[in-house]
Amino acid sequence: MLDKITTANMEASKVKSILVKTAKYMVISLAVILGLLFVTPYIFSDKIKEEIKKTANKKLAGEMNYSDVNVSFFKHFPSLTLTLNDFKLNGSAPFQKERLIDAKEVSFGINIPSLIFGKSINIDEIYLSNSTINIKVNKEGLANYNVYIAEEDNKKKEEEESSAIKLERIEIINSQLTYDDQSTNLHFDSFGFNYLGKGDLSKDVFDLYSKAKIDKLNLLYENEQYLMNKKVDADLITKINVNSLSFVFEQNDLMINQLPVDFKGKFDFLKDGYNMDFIVKSNNSELEHLFTALPPKYNAWLSKTELKGKTDVLLTLKGNYIESKAIAPDFNLDLKIRDGYVNYDKSAFPVSNLNLDLSTSLPSLNPELLIVDTKSISLNINKDYLKAKVFVQGMKNPEIDAVFNAKIDLEKLNKALGVTNFELKGMLVGEGSAKGKYDQKNGKFPITNANINLKSGYIKTQYYPNPITNINILTTIENKNGSFSDLKVILKPAEFTFEGKPVFVEANLFNFEDLAYDIKAKGTLDIGKIYQVFSQKGLDVDGFVKADVSLKGKQSDAEKGNYSKLQNKGTLELRNILIATEYLPKKFLIKEGVFKINQDKMSFNNFLAAYGQSDFRMNGYLQNVFNFATTKTGILRGAFTLNSIYINADEFMSETTAVTTNPAPATLPEKKSTTAKVETGVIMIPSNLDLKFQANAQKVNFNELSLKDAKGSVNIKKGVLTMQNTGFNLIGCPVTMNAKYEASTPKKAVFDYYIKAADFDIKRAYNEIKIFREMASAAEKAEGTISLEYKLKGRLNANMEPVYPSLVGNGIVSVKDIKLHGMKMFSAVAKETNHDKMNNPELSKVVIKSSIKNNIITLERFKFKFAGFRPRIEGTTSLDGRFNIKMRLGLPPFGLFGIPMTITGNKDNPKVKVGRKTEDLEETEDKDTE
User: Fold this and answer.
1) Per-residue pLDDT tens digits for 475-503
2) 312 near 289, Cβ under 8 Å?
């Protein structure tokens, strides 16, 4: 027994000894390991720092800075990491001076075997903590993130000896990421951005497993807010092909706020664009969760609204996007809502049984190819109902297939949906269908049968304190064979009351190809206040229209002049009304005008109007007004006497505005600032006017010309303006003129005019008339009186200035008495011939005939006497001042003997040679032959 106890004690002692030794060795090993963990970073610290600095210098295109460096196993245990504190990295060209990354800490995980046994150090992990990342792409597609310099193939040996980045893990912690792409007008910000990506990023083709969480995501496209303050939780698997720059999104489960989204697809970089194939879907989701993912303007509404129902969303974007070739992908959106329920602010009558089946297709992102297919939409409010289906294909000439049936109390609908900007009332009852193509040019209209009845309507908005009340509309629209000729619109009645003033309209319209109309309208409408009801932008004008008219007839009778068959009468009074038209850059203000309608004629007296700085008082009549107003082919005819104190014709020149958008800041902007560059254009004359004016204007300003006491006959017909027997005073000289003007495009016009001016001061003309300075630059120092009679035609550019090579004309300049002081051409003649008296010649009673073509003025031979000399001059000059003049200087006493000479060069540097030989000036032909 004792032996057994002794043996047991010995065995226990051995076990204890083994355990003690094991523990001892474990403690020693742990201490060694801990010691190595502490010591190893210091042993290899210098090597690591040197390799990192070498790598940064060789492989980073952007400027990198940091405040301190430390190496540790414990920063991201068990990885050995190099941490750069207060890390800053600028972007690549052209963003070298702008920050790409600004982080409190950036850590690089180091591959231990490469550190101990390799010639180079491999970095396989990157950690960014509390960082700000600003990614930018300019309009040309150049990005700031191309900071890593790829090695060339012929540097393989050098590549093996340097440190390498072979990433297997990327982690971003509590950071802010901003992406601003001006080439696609896409901008987003993510706050509280946390990301973990795993995969062998050193391979050419690899799978990237990612997890991302974002506290707040803001996304803008074309400066419109689509997502604001949205939470995102995502698990992603992305296959990346580095060689072809291809991304395949294999499995991506997103949570946008409370909406689950499945995202799959691919994205390839092409030589000049992108190839996309994206599929985004959310099936059998809650209707409420769908609204949590919508833009922020719905947040306040959603907080007061009870939503029920199921939704399915499918969005696809597929195809190439190549901006330079105008190639864009196809966009499709399918949205379904089942058994929906909407109740805003605990309304007593909620919307129930809301069902929607909508498909939208936008091939090549082209609005003209848009297809909207609402297969069904239906809802109930208590016993009220709405049922409809609508199919529309195309924009300009859409194909339509629509059916609707409704009985809705608008007040109940307004309260149930929570439409806060409008207060609506009234019972809307309607049913109808429309099927076919709308093509006005070819006379096609959908086959239609519809009745719409609104009783006791009421509209009140937040922008104006008083409502529009007593709205009653009873409308029937009928078309049986699908043509404009079969279209019938009956409006009996349309009436409403605003500010205590009732307005009543009743109309029967038939056959829109030869419109037969019967319209009665009576009432006063305050345009300014009506505008205020529907807009918060403020008043354009505080004006009103007062009408009491009865119109009955046919369009063809108005066109053919069968005025006896028309029964049009009444009055129309306008005050302070602004009219905008595509033909004029500014708005036309009718200060006051009372129109009296009798058959096809609209007469008015003392019609006061203004356009910019110009004022007009007109008396006369307009004809074919109804035809002009209701069709694109109607010609407005009329005759007026027009009186004005001042007309600024330059304000009638057309304008085109080119808007440039300034770059967005790194943080989310409310708005992008814009600058507008205004380009002028010629005065456009509408082609559908046939008007005659007897005009009288005390002062007219046009292209730096100041005309006084302008009088004449002006006709406008088929886009051509003709002026006959027009007279005005220019620089104190009476001028008569006939002219013809026509604009072919907003950038080009042609003119043809005859002008006669008697006894005008040449010095004053040079100082005050721009075109005279340009065409007669040699007259800079001339003094005296001349007369002019000239015919000229040509082309005007976008600034209403003559294009000199296009000018063709001829005429006479009569010199009454003129002194040519300091004219370099005559000074050069005096020097060459040693006759100083030719320095400042004086001319009197000389007739100079000339013609203009291809930028050259041809002077016919003319003579004059001066100080005993008898000069004879002929030749050509160009409109830019070059000379090719032949001159014979007849010597005293009778000019029988003379000195032949040639004058070349230009007005600033004339060259005089004795002799007859000259070279023709080079002509400049007008290249615009349109």
Assistant:
1) 999 999 999 999 999 998 899 898 888 99
2) no
What is the phi-psi region of residue 258: left when phi exceeds 0, alpha when psi lies from -120 to 50, beta otherwise? alpha
Cα torsion angle, 546, 548, 554, 557, sign: negative
Distance CA(192)–CA(186), nearest Å, equals 20
Q: How far is CA 125 from the centre of its chain?
A: 45
Res 479: pLDDT: 94
DSSP letters spanning 129-195: EEEEEEEEE-TTS-BS---BPPPPGGGHHHHHHS-EEEEEEEEEEEEEEEEEETTTTEEEEEEEEEE
Question: In one letter, which amino acid is 14?
Answer: K
Q: 734 Cβ partners below 8 Å, 6+ apart?
A: 727, 757, 758
Q: Has residue 371 got a pLDDT over 90?
A: yes
DSSP assignments along 477-495, one per residue: EEESSSBGGG-EEEEEEEE
- Three-state secondary-structure class, residue 350: coil
| Per-residue model confidence as pLDDT tens digits over 315-350 | 888 888 887 788 888 999 999 999 999 998 888 999
pLDDT in tens, 534-569: 654 444 556 778 889 898 888 888 777 787 888 889
Strand segments, DSSP code E, in 585-704 are 588-598, 601-611, 614-623, 636-644, 647-648, 655-661, 674-680, 689-702
Q: Which runs of E-coded beta strand occur in 499-598?
A: 501-510, 516-526, 544-554, 569-579, 588-598
- For residues 735-743, give the mean pLDDT: 88
Question: What is the torsional sign of CA 27, 30, 32, 34?
Answer: negative
- Residue 94 preceded by cis peptide, ω within 30: yes
- Residue 587 is classified by DSSP as P
Compute the mean pLDDT over every residue in the chain, rounded to the nearest whole number: 78
Q: Cβ neighbours of residue 897 under 8 Å, at least 6 residues apart?
A: 890, 891
Query: Strand, helix or coil at 296?
Result: helix
CA atoms of 775 and 828, how far apart (whole Å): 22
Bridge pairing between strands 305-321 and 274-286: antiparallel
For the chain, what percent of residues have pLDDT higher than 90? 16
Residues β-bridged to residue 211: 196, 235
Distance CA 483, CA 512 (A): 9
The token pair that represents 463 in the structure block? 């922008």
Q: How far apart are CA 841 and CA 405, in angstroms?
A: 93
Statement: residue 300 has pLDDT above 90: no
Q: What are phi and psi of 629, to 5 degrees?
A: -75, -25
Give me the DSSP letters along 364-395. Answer: GG-GGG-EEEEEEEEEEETTEEEEEEEEEE-S
Tokens of 638: 């009329």
User: How much is the CA Rg of the chain, to the nearest whole Å?
Assistant: 42
Burial of 224 from C-beta contacts in 10 A (0-12 / 13-18 / 19+): exposed
Q: Which residues contact 691 (CB under 8 A, 6 or more apart)?
A: 636, 637, 638, 639, 640, 715, 716, 717
Cα distance between residue 649 and residue 729, in whole Å: 16
Determine which helix (DSSP H) or strand (DSSP E) holds 887, and give its type and residue range. strand 883-890
For 182-303, strand residue ranges (E) read 186-198, 205-221, 224-241, 246-256, 259-269, 274-286
Evaluate whether 440 touches 409 at the Cβ level (below 8 Å). Answer: no
Contacts for 457 with CB less than 8 Å, ≥ 6 apart? 410, 424, 425, 426, 468, 469, 470, 471, 472, 473, 496
Best CA proximity match to 179, nearest among 232, 129, 142, 137: 137
* Max CA separation in the chain (angstroms): 172
What gap in Å lies between CA 248 and CA 238, rounded to an integer? 6
For 871, counting Cβ atoms within 10 Å of its Cβ (0-12 exposed, 13-18 middle, 19+ buried), the class is: buried
